[in-house]
Amino acid sequence: MDRMKRIGVIGGMSWYSTAEYYRVINERVQERLGGHHSADLLVHSLDFAEIRQCQIDGDWERAGKIMGASAAGLVGAGAEVVVLATNLMHKAAGAIEEAIAALPVTAPFLHIADAVGQEAVRLGARRIGLLGAGAVLAERFYAERLARHGVEALVPGAQTRARLDEIIFGELTVGEVRPESQADLRAAVEALAEDGAEAVALACTELELAITTAEVPLIATARTHARAAADAALAT
Q: What count of Cα atoms within 13 Å lies in the side-chain half-sphere of residue 6?
């Protein structure tokens, strides 16, 4: 094979899912190359408390500057592929792409919704449900990216979206998984399936730590994105 490209991961949002990215990327490289091979990667783990405050305040300009600076730092340190290890912060994807494009040496930014859209197509699912943080579900930035792949996104109602935020930010991002919350997640998946979803994307990287099986295929976005990053690093 040609030289493996260096992957840059913008992480820490939360560190639990970033750890999953690190594991899956290395598993995929070892699966592809065998032996003692592991990924050539850099991780910039941000302080999630600062990013969470930007989310609460709706200060997406500041969040974008933080994301863009992180991406630029990774590329400056030799990253040849950049991934953002969170779904919600892809609301700032434009700031990341602009920061990278302004550098003397650039690198592709792999958007998580592109990886999810490609996986949905592979599964033959043209209508998928989304479970994730409120902004991912209530706004269009994620669904519009999926639409580029011919994939329609279904989202739950306001009450379920509020409950998802409670589970994500009250439990999963601080390392807790409560049985009653797992039951609520399963019910949310079932409701989306009843509405016509052919698969459900866990569009918060921590959700796949709480639910792994359902009556319809689940797209684990962190795992899907991480495998896509490894494949991009190994592409000739």
A: 13
